From TrEMBL, chain A:
InterPro entries named among the record's database cross-references: Ribosomal_Su5_D2-typ_SF, Ribosomal_uS5, Ribosomal_uS5_C, Ribosomal_uS5_N, Ribsml_uS5_D2-typ_fold_subgr
Protein name per UniProt: S5 DRBM domain-containing protein
PROSITE patterns associated with the record: S5_DSRBD
Domain S5 DRBM per the UniProt entry, residue ranges: 345-408
Family: Belongs to the universal ribosomal protein uS5 family.
From TrEMBL, chain B:
Keywords recorded for this protein, A-Z: Ribonucleoprotein, Ribosomal protein
Pfam families in the record: Ribosomal_S8
The keyword Ribonucleoprotein is annotated on this UniProt entry: yes
Source organism superkingdom: Eukaryota
Family per record: Belongs to the universal ribosomal protein uS8 family.
Organism: Remersonia thermophila
Transmembrane segments: none
Residue numbers spanned by region Disordered: 48-68
Protein name (database record): 30S ribosomal protein S8
Gene3D superfamilies: 3.30.1370.30, 3.30.1490.10
InterPro entries in UniProt: Ribosomal_uS8 (IPR000630), Ribosomal_uS8_sf (IPR035987)
Length: 509, 162
């Protein structure tokens, strides 16, 4: 009963008898403006018209639960304090009473009500409504109508006359949006504005009214109000007050006589309410201000430069279905690699840290990731990203690494040139070139970087701090900033020759 | 012969290069001159000119001779003006590390220098890596380590430049 609606209140007061939707419809027609909450969807109306009592036997009030003891149930032993009085004994069951009640509570639709319903429903819906009305004898409702008390009753009492936002779906009576509507251009907008203004009242009401000066003798009219004598001023004000009251009453009378549409005949420009309505409710599309139920904004036109193609993921057949989500489309465009190449790169997540930003609202945790990508043949990319979503941070870091791919100079495609030392904060990374077959005798994060870059012989050491983040950064810097023998030779004006190549007759790579 | 002057000169060259100077001067000693000429041979310096207390004019820098005789009257005011080299916005002399110092002289035999020039450590001297030069004072003059190996001489290790 907690969910009882106003309509249900009427139902209960109507001697536990069902109510047809006529009552709701009648109230709707009586009001000059139809409240949206009272609009009944056709299905609801038909359903409520078909709502008929099924079980004639009143509920005994037994609790349908298995007893855990042999003694009879409390409700079975209940003795009413008074003997039951039959309805017929009270004179409620004679035909006249029943007919009176039926006529009072379940009257037929009046022609006005039917006319109003026709404005709300399509002819098919009206036919269904009338069939539903014809199917049920109002007398049956009076005699047999009961509130359901069975376990399968509705969890709330309703005649479906009103929509209940939590339970009911919103009525969608309006037409769908116009698919051909476009944003108005300047000419269309001007025409629309003129159309709107034409419907407004013409002329200026206040311009026709008398002013305070009209109520003073001729002698004082030219002077400002402050120079009038006190008695003249008071008299003029009293007359002006009476005049204004009379004018207001006159207008009110005219309004009442002509109805709400009469405003336009009275004269006067747009009111604030009109302008607000124009701003808030007037459509900016070429759909003749059509009202719809859809809250979807019209899609951006595809041909606008700068917008075209941005909001559609076009699956490229070249990707062979490897990037249907469009994750690598941007990378593809910026690096010129194919998706297959991107996916074939060696990548490794070198560092995941959970960091938090302490705000006055608490800690905002996020995940900081360092990712490397390499092709195993002299290219290495370093990507760093942070995100509250772990997976998103991983993806961002990987994409950053892809965009950051750089060539790593390699001596004989297997080791670095000379020895490099780099320092980030307290972390120093020292790397030295090593002979073939030496292997990667390096810390494991640098090992992964070397593997991704295609370096096979290297020794590295970190004599001081071994901070993970700084060691990755220092190693990446060192690999990217190796000394270049050609540059050194040019700087010194010398000819540098690789003795190893000379000795082996160039038989090394 | 003390080496404090040549050690100071070497360090001064590093400082001047890091300050991005085009021309700088070191005291006019025979030892400094030999080191400067050795560095010039190695391509680390653009020019070596003996001049007065004022920088020599550009044409003198180019020719390496300012046309003034060194006499006993002006020898005290002579200085060695060296032109520094830069490439790709970086100094050619990035690091200078003196190995011998007045309190500890470090010598290297021919065998040591042979190892060092191949990149291996020998005694006090670390092996040379890519782009490094080692200057050795031998009885054949101040030489780069590879020149010394070529001439089969060892000597006093002055400084390491890279």
């Amino acid at each position: 009963m907690s969910a009882a609606r106003p309509a249900a209140g009427r139902l209960l007061s109507g001697a536990c008898l069902a109510v047809r939707p006529k009552a709701a419809a009648a109230t709707a027609t009586a009001a000059t403006t139809l409240p949206t909450g009272a609009t009944t969807s056709p299905h609801a109306a038909v359903a409520s018209a078909c709502y008929s009592p099924s079980s004639s036997s009143p509920c005994l009030g037994r609790v349908l639960a298995r007893p855990f003891h042999s003694s009879p149930h409390l409700s079975a032993r209940r003795r009413p304090r008074f003997a039951n009085v039959r309805a017929s004994d009270m004179g409620l069951m004679d035909d006249k009473q029943i007919d009176d009640f039926t006529k009072d509570k379940f009257p037929k639709y009046t022609p006005e009500e039917l006319a109003h319903l026709r404005t709300l429903y399509s002819p098919e819906q009206m036919a269904a409504l009338e069939a539903g009305e014809a199917a049920i004898n109002p007398r049956d409702l009076t005699v047999q109508g009961r509130l359901r008390t069975d376990p399968y009753r509705m969890p709330y009492i309703d005649d479906f006359a009103e929509t209940q936002p939590v339970i009911d779906k919103r009525a969608r009576n309006k037409a769908p949006p116009d698919p051909h509507a476009r944003f108005m251009d300047l000419d269309q907008f001007a025409r629309d504005l003129i159309d709107w203004a034409d419907k407004l009242p013409k002329g200026e009401v206040t311009g026709n009214l008398k002013r305070l000066q009209d109520f003073v003798p001729e002698a004082y009219r030219a002077r400002p109000e402050t120079q009038w004598p006190a008695e003249v001023r008071d008299e003029a004000r009293a007359k002006f007050q009476r005049y204004m009251e009379g004018e207001v009453a006159k207008q009110q009378k005219a309004l009442n006589a002509k109805g709400s549409d009469a405003l336009s005949d009275l004269g006067g420009g747009p009111t604030d309410a009109d302008i607000l309505q124009y701003i808030l409710e007037r459509s900016v599309m070429t759909d003749a201000n059509r009202q719809t139920d859809s809250s979807m904004a019209p899609a951006l036109p595809n041909k606008v430069p700068g917008v075209a193609g941005l909001y559609k993921t076009v699956i490229d057949p070249e990707d062979q279905g490897k990037d249907d989500l469009g994750i690598y489309q941007d990378v593809k465009r910026r690096t010129g690699m194919t998706v297959r190449e991107i996916l074939n790169l060696r990548d490794k997540q070198l560092l995941v840290r959970f960091v938090s930003n302490q705000t006055r609202l608490g800690k905002v945790r996020s995940c900081s990731v360092i990712h490397i990508v390499g092709n195993g043949d002299g290219w290495l990319g370093y990507g760093e990203a942070k995100g509250t979503e772990t997976q998103l941070a991983f993806r961002k870091a990987r994409i950053n690494a892809l965009l950051n791919l750089r060539p790593i100079r390699r001596y004989e495609n297997r080791t670095i040139y000379g020895s490099i030392t780099s320092k980030i904060s307290a972390t120093i990374v020292k790397m030295e070139a090593r002979p073939p077959g030496f292997g990667l005798r390096v810390p494991y994060r640098i090992f992964e970087m070397c593997r991704a870059a295609g370096i096979h012989d290297l020794s590295a050491s970190m004599p001081r701090a071994r901070n993970p983040m700084n060691s990755i950064k220092a190693a990446y810097w060192a690999l990217c900033n190796q000394p270049d023998p050609e540059e050194i030779a040019m700087a010194r004006g010398k000819k540098l020759v690789d003795a190893r190549k000379v000795y082996y007759g160039g038989a090394v790579y | 012969m003390g080496i404090h002057s040549v050690t100071n000169a070497a360090i001064h060259l590093q400082n001047a290069a890091r300050a991005r100077l085009g021309l700088t001067s070191i005291p006019n000693t025979k030892y400094n001159l030999r080191l400067a000429l050795a560095m010039h041979r190695a391509g680390l310096l653009a020019s070596v000119t003996r001049g007065g207390p004022r920088p020599p004019p550009p044409e003198a820098v180019l020719s390496g001779d300012d046309g003034e005789e060194v006499t006993s009257a002006n020898v005290a005011t002579r200085r060695i003006w060296v032109g520094l080299k830069y490439w790709n916005n970086e100094p050619v002399i990035k690091n200078v590390k003196p190995i011998s110092k007045p309190s500890r002289l470090v010598t290297a035999s021919l065998g040591d220098l042979q190892k060092v020039t191949r990149g291996f450590k020998s005694g006090m001297v670390q092996g040379l890596t890519l782009g490094e030069s080692l200057f050795v004072s031998t009885d054949r003059g101040v030489l780069e380590a590879r020149e010394a190996v070529e001439k089969k001489v060892g000597g006093l290790v002055l400084c390491r430049v890279s």
